Amino acid sequence: MSQTTQAPTVKVASFGGGGRGGGRNRFAPGEKPQNTRGTAWRVIKIYARSGKVVLLVIALTALSALISVAIPYFVGRAFDTFHISPVHVDTATLWRLLIIVAALYLGNYLIGTLNGLVTLNVTQKLVRQLRTDYFAKLQKLPLSFFDTRPHGDTMSRLTNDIDNISTSIASTTTQFVSAALTIVGSLAVMLYLSPALTLAVAVAIPLVAVLTGTIAKRSRAYFLAQQRNLGLLNGEIEENIVGIKMVKAFGQRDFVMKQFGETNENLFAASRRAQIWSGFMMPLMNVINNLTYTLVALAGGVLSVRYGLPVGTVVSFLFYSKQFGQPLSSLAGMWNTIQQALAGAERVFEILDLPEETPDAPGAIVEHDVTGHVAFDNVSFAYPGANSALVLNHISFDVHPGETVALVGETGAGKTTIVNLLLRFYDADAGQILVDGTAITGIVRDSLRRCFSVVLQDTCLFTGTIGDNIRYARPDATVDEVAAAAKLAHADEFIDRLPHGYDTAVSGSSDNLSEGQRQLLAIARAVLSDSPVLILDEATSSVDTKTEKDIQRALLHLMANHTSFLIAHRLSTIRDADRIMVIGDGQILEAGNHAELMARRGRYYEMVVSQMGVIPS
Ligand SMILES: Nc1ncnc2c1ncn2[C@@H]1O[C@H](COP(=O)(O)OP(=O)(O)OP(=O)(O)O)[C@@H](O)[C@H]1O
Ligand SMILES: [Mg+2]
């Protein structure tokens, strides 16, 4: 037995094995088994936040179960108003009982409807809360999370898995509770009415238990596989849409179709198996139910004729046997659904439990009126991860307020890493970084980041208008301020040419602006935010050289009273910097202004020569 239940799990694990690239391989084989109890407990605790409403749902569910248990009893009593010897009907009692039964049915209907509405409400609120928590968590996670996880999977958890919780857990849980209560209640009343006849009904219990146990285990494994494959599929779709140009340019359509086909096939197989197995349940349960029904009828008949058991009691039992078997058989199915939702909940909780950015130190200060004095003191850093070579190795430098420092160096030398450390996207492993003499670990993060206006290496625009995007860091900026910033960044020319000007809609994913234009917007955004320290990481790499020169001239004025860090491969860009630092091998190889470094004929000189193609005069 244990072997057959193991089989699907092994299959699930192997899904992660094949394929290259794409959204695959994100689930390691033999992913940890789910902690059902812990997860369930957490979901319950989240529900408990809704306090009174949950109590109301529980009360309504219990009441409804109670009514369901009471109905057969009264139906049986109604039958007992028919007397055989002498033949007569106790009409008054019959009418009374019939009215009671009708009222109970009606009551149950009303309670059920109300309960459904209330449950729906609580659940949707719960899901909204979970989405909020999840999104808030994303804002607090360290950058390393986003740098190392497939975005598609992170998104899939927020949408698919949370959705799963809403559709499954709440409604199914109330059904489950109601079924359980009905079973227990029915059993109690049956025992009270006739212990002997109860035995006949009870025969079904072990049968149902064994069958549902076996089937549920199987289908659960496939449901899990279904969800994983859905995650994979989402990842693949997301990557395909983002990378559609590459797919087309490299003619990889057949390959991605094949890859998608495989994942789709796996999803199909898992879903089909899950449905088939859970589909076995119903017909089997029907058979068991009918058998129990027959058994009760037979035993009831015998007990009634031989031992004078009232016919009404037998009738009640016939009702109970139905009422008993139905929830019993659906219990397993519901358990499945709950499991499925819990698996999703677990994926959500996994993210919610991840360690956040280290919180601001207890006496962290809020920086005001920063002059822009930035110092690295013996800073060493390696990115967290397996093959973590030191990117920065005991680096020290001191940048005075108003100074313009250029960082140059080969690709992968660690220039952007210096920016990452400065903004505390990552924390240095050793040494200190100081802003105005205060270690940045002792500054409240938000206030630290407000000290910098940055143009990052990869330009990011958000969905909204061009104006909104420039205004990003200062939503209260006036139209004139926005226009002035755009002019300084030389973005005004192309914006004015657009039919809707500053109201032109842009987004992070759409491509209606050129790369250079996007960079100009990013520069305008940084200019407008006007923080004491300006950081431009390859900010003009996609801009033509003439525009770049123009921007530089414009920025010169701005940079005079701001500390500035310029990173650029195009060395002509940084020629006028007060100081140029050549980064390499995790260290500062050379530092000085253009003339000094050229005179030195070292690394910088070589770089200039190789870019110019000739020895400069
Ligand atoms: N998020 C990250 N996780 C792990 N390693 C990283 C990460 N970002 C960069 N690295 C590694 O750190 C090293 C320095 O990268 P960095 O981005 O600082 O280079 P760079 O000097 O800015 O290069 P480029 O001129 O290409 O922008 C590289 O070897 C890179 O592989
Ligand atoms: Mg870089």
Task: List the topology elements.
Blueprint (H helix, E strand, L loop, with lengths): L1 H14 L20 H13 L3 H28 L2 E2 L4 E2 L1 H50 L2 H6 L2 H43 L1 H8 L1 H39 L1 H6 L3 H55 L3 H42 L21 E8 L10 E8 L4 E6 L5 H8 L7 E6 L2 E2 L5 H5 L2 E4 L8 E2 H5 L8 H10 L3 H6 L7 E2 L8 H15 L3 E5 L7 H16 L2 E5 L11 E6 L2 E6 L1 H7 L2 H10 L5
Parallel strand pairs: 5-12, 5-13, 8-11, 11-12
Antiparallel strand pairs: 1-2, 3-4, 3-6, 6-7, 9-10, 13-14
Magnesium ion binds next to helix 12.
Distance between the termini: 85 Å
The CATH superfamily of one domain turns out to be: ABC transporter type 1, transmembrane domain
The parts where pLDDT drops under 50 for at least 5 residues are: 1-33
* DSSP strand content: 5-15%
Name the shape in a single word. elongated
CATH architecture of one domain: Up-down Bundle
Number of strands: 14
How many DSSP H or I helices?
Answer: 20
Give the CATH class of one domain: Mainly Alpha
**Class inferred from helices and paired strands:** alpha/beta
Estimate percent helicity.
55-70%
Task: Write out the distinct hetero groups bound to the structure.
Answer: adenosine-5'-triphosphate, magnesium ion
CATH fold description of one domain: ABC transporter transmembrane region fold
